[in-house]
Amino acid sequence: MNRKQVFFSNLPELETDRLHLRPFRPRDAEDVFTYASIPELTRFLPWDTHRSLSDSEGFLNYVVNWFPEHRRAELGFVLSKKYWGQGLVPEAARRVIAYGFDHLDLVKIKAPAMTENVQSRKVLEKLGFELEGVLKQEYIIKGKSRDMAMYALMKGQE
Questions:
Q1: Is 114 exposed, middle or buried (0-12, 13-18, 19+ CB in 10 A)?
Q2: Which residue in 17, 21, 158 sits closest to 87, CA to CA?
Q3: Where is the signal peptide (predicted)?
Q4: Which of 40, 56, 58, 133 is deepest in the core (most CB within 10 A)?
């Protein structure tokens, strides 16, 4: 097991008023597939809509995006449609951000969003993230070159 795998296998479970947050586990693949196989939910994501449980298993192995040597991490989110509009993403993100700054000694948390993903951009701005710039044609997603809005939150801004 490499350093990141060891670290992420020991992440704590976090609580909010309404949520119990925990690290992904291999057995979560079926739940991930439930939403990740819906094109409407994945249209703004940098990965393809999952076509099989194997895709979701691979995603769970990929999702770690933490750079301890630079004291920064990257935040991303996707939520099953049945939970939209309930304020769950900001609630969860605030708790994760606080943990990152308070316990991981992060100095910066980045969050990319496709420029046309207005809802995610609003959530990031609501959380205090600032737009650092737009990376033109940064990714080929769903067969199209996409511009990415790069947001960041620095320790002390939250």
A1: buried
A2: 17
A3: none
A4: 56
The CATH number given to whatever domain includes residue 71 is 3.40.630.30
Burial string for 28-45 (b: 16+ CB within 10 Å, else e) reads ebeebbebbbeeebbebb
Q: What is the DSSP letter of 52?
A: S
What sign results for the dihedral spanned by CA atoms 41, 46, 47, 48? positive
Beta-strand pair 66-67/108-114:
unpaired
DSSP three-state, residue 41: helix
| pLDDT tens sequence across 26-36 | 889 999 999 99
The Cα–Cα gap between 57 and 4 comes to: 18
**What is residue 83's DSSP assignment?**
G
Specify which residues 67 forms β-bridges with: 72
Number of structural domains (the chain) is: 1
Q: Model-level pTM? A: 0.84
CB 134 within 8 Å of CB 113:
no
**Within 13 Å of residue 48, how many CA atoms lie on the same side as its CB?**
11
User: By residue range, what is the domain housing residue 69?
Assistant: 3-154
